[in-house]
Amino acid sequence: MLYNENKWSDWFDFNAKTISEIPQTAGVYMMHISMKILYIGGSENIKIAIQHNTNQCVSRATRVRYMQTSSFEKITDELIKDYQSRHEGRLPQCME
Q1: How far apart are CA 24 and CA 1, in angstroms?
Q2: Which of 34, 38, 69, 92 lies in the 20 to 30 Å Cα band around 60?
Q3: Would 27 be classed as within a structural domain?
Q4: What is the CATH number of the domain that holds 16?
């Protein structure tokens, strides 16, 4: 898959300090709680997308990771399809 060519960040605690250090660049991101993916997203500016995500479900996330890529739309779609293939067609909890 295309996203294997890119490098993910480590998983970071989801808090204001971490968000302040995320680059303002195109990319994809994932958020989880207790090792369960809550949200998969992509944006032209991942920092702003994460900062302005108003989904109450996402506010429960404890960890976040991201990948910088200009192909964020395609990679986001691939990540979601991969997730669904491993979870009986379901979307991550905060995306249902």
Answers
A1: 25
A2: 69
A3: yes
A4: 3.40.1440.10
